[in-house]
């Protein structure tokens, strides 16, 4: 799609940001609980990785629903802003994370030259999101102090989480959405 954004697209993006800001807040509470459970086992860093895909869902959803260049980055950034405004204890740093997560997903659509809006760019986006966000958090959280085995384990769990939430769950939601659109056309 080219040209100016439509009012419908802007409203949809705002609704996605509002919705996913809430999802991100909920993921923060899940993170706190999971981290508390994993800490005595010495596995607290895995709490972030297991749930990471939840924090990345706005980008692929925005990219699929609003097939425009930049919609993934914008969707994830606005959802991160909503999370911040809701009062997340992660603070304004979520905006930086949101940028890398959105950019990673956007790369998935770039690879297909913005011609595909299906599972293929979502999978490429999962790779991009995993790599970009992991490199950023490698330095942010000091992952360099971990053994190579631990680092690779964290990366693998993050990739699985991002793939599950950003590819599998988003695809399932989109199938339901498309089905509801077909049903609404039939009823008219």
TrEMBL record:
<keyword id="KW-1133">Transmembrane helix</keyword>
<dbReference type="InterPro" id="IPR017195">
    <property type="entry name" value="ABC_thiamin-permease_prd"/>
</dbReference>
<feature type="transmembrane region" description="Helical">
    <location>
        <begin position="119"/>
        <end position="139"/>
    </location>
</feature>
<feature type="transmembrane region" description="Helical">
    <location>
        <begin position="151"/>
        <end position="174"/>
    </location>
</feature>
<keyword id="KW-0812">Transmembrane</keyword>
<dbReference type="Pfam" id="PF09819">
    <property type="entry name" value="ABC_cobalt"/>
</dbReference>
<feature type="transmembrane region" description="Helical">
    <location>
        <begin position="46"/>
        <end position="66"/>
    </location>
</feature>
<feature type="transmembrane region" description="Helical">
    <location>
        <begin position="12"/>
        <end position="34"/>
    </location>
</feature>
<feature type="transmembrane region" description="Helical">
    <location>
        <begin position="78"/>
        <end position="99"/>
    </location>
</feature>
<keyword id="KW-0472">Membrane</keyword>
<protein>
    <submittedName>
        <fullName>HMP/thiamine permease protein YkoE</fullName>
    </submittedName>
</protein>
């Amino acid at each position: 799609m080219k040209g100016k954004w439509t009012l419908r697209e802007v409203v949809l993006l705002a609704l996605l940001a509002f919705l996913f800001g809430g999802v991100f807040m909920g993921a923060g509470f899940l993170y706190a609980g999971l981290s508390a459970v994993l800490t005595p086992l010495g596995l607290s860093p895995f709490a972030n990785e297991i749930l990471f895909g939840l924090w990345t869902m706005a980008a692929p959803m925005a990219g699929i629903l609003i097939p425009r260049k930049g919609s993934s980055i914008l969707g994830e950034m606005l959802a991160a802003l909503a999370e911040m405004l809701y009062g997340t204890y992660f603070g304004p740093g979520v905006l930086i994370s949101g940028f890398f997560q959105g950019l990673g997903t956007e790369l998935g659509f770039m690879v297909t030259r913005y011609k595909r809006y299906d599972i293929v760019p979502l999978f490429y986006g999962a790779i991009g999101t995993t790599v970009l966000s992991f490199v950023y958090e490698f330095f942010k959280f000091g992952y360099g102090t971990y053994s190579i085995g631990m680092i690779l384990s964290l990366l693998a769990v993050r990739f699985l989480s991002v793939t599950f939430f950003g590819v599998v769950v988003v695809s399932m939601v989109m199938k339901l959405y498309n089905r509801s659109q077909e049903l609404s056309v039939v009823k008219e």
